[in-house]
Amino acid sequence: MKNRLVEGDIVPAQSSPEDRVVEHLYDGVLRPEAWNEALNALCKLAACEHAALTSWDRATNVGGVHESVGLPADCRRQFVDHYCALDPARDRMDDFQIGDWYVDHVHVGTHAMQRSAFYQDFLRHFDLGSIAATPLERDDGGESFLVFQYDLQYARRCQMPSSALSRVVPHIRRALQLRRRFTVLETENSLRSTVLNQLRLPLMVVDAGGRILMANAGAEAALARHANLRLTRGRLAISGRDGARWSALLAAACTAAPRVAGGMRLQSGTGPGVTQILMTPLPPGWSPSNRESGPLALILLQDQRHPHEVPAALLQQLYSLTPSELRVARGILRGEAPRDTAQRLGVSIATVRTQLSAVFQKTGTSRQAELAQLLGTFAVLGAH
């Protein structure tokens, strides 16, 4: 887009239709609704009312319509369900390179179109008469296409596309690649957050300066309730006399040579109880945002005042524990002695020992410490 001079000032000239298509395409990388705007602008370049981005999966022999303008939902559905396999273009598109244009009047011929069920039973039913298409991407798995559909009354307009339309094709391909990459990153980030939030153990990732790059819901809750853990401009810090130990722990995990794991115990600051902080270096080059972040460390917080409950339904499903046996098992995980559990539940010590023996047998353990270790692996999943 060129600029023009007006009374000594440079102002942008009005953008061309080709420029507007390109703007909408790249806008669509982050804003999906802009693809409809791009397809509408492409229709103007092609002098038609309908356009679509379609695909063909070679493995399943199934077609798809991913974006479209001007095409009724029933038209898209019938194409995918049945008529994609009858499209004469299917047998000819392998002869066209990416960016080359297939025009049915030219490459199929009027007489063949008049005998084709694809044209007579399908396109005519929706008042469509002719199509032009170009391959956008092609690999062993299949192909994707940009397709224009012309109304019956304007079918003669379906000629070889203009040079302006052909110049836009590389931008369509690049925008599709960027959009696909962005979608993958969004999916990875969503999956990462979902998995981490399923873990009840508070987990976070920090850089060498203590800046939090990622934290699950458990970590956010732990930070909110712990008086000595504070955030200053997005950086995790520990107040009081434990601050120096925290700085040394962070340096050992991120900047020391070699980098080493470590831990510390932190008083709650608001009453009895201790929070254990475990920190371990993450592999070089790892980053939650796929950007260079320097050395990073993974932090796990374990607050003795807020023990994690074992998911009852899961344990009952895996080990067939009765409700009474489950209550005893949970007491062991909390660090209770059998006598304490008996007192809490209001039963005899003999009853608790009988139930504990059954838990040992069902879980394949033989000692309380072994049982607590086993149950602890399930506790990180939360009580569901």
From TrEMBL:
<dbReference type="InterPro" id="IPR036388">
    <property type="entry name" value="WH-like_DNA-bd_sf"/>
</dbReference>
<dbReference type="GO" id="GO:0006355">
    <property type="term" value="P:regulation of DNA-templated transcription"/>
</dbReference>
<feature type="domain" description="HTH luxR-type">
    <location>
        <begin position="318"/>
        <end position="375"/>
    </location>
</feature>
<dbReference type="GO" id="GO:0003677">
    <property type="term" value="F:DNA binding"/>
</dbReference>
<dbReference type="InterPro" id="IPR000792">
    <property type="entry name" value="Tscrpt_reg_LuxR_C"/>
</dbReference>
<protein>
    <recommendedName>
        <fullName>HTH luxR-type domain-containing protein</fullName>
    </recommendedName>
</protein>
<dbReference type="InterPro" id="IPR016032">
    <property type="entry name" value="Sig_transdc_resp-reg_C-effctor"/>
</dbReference>
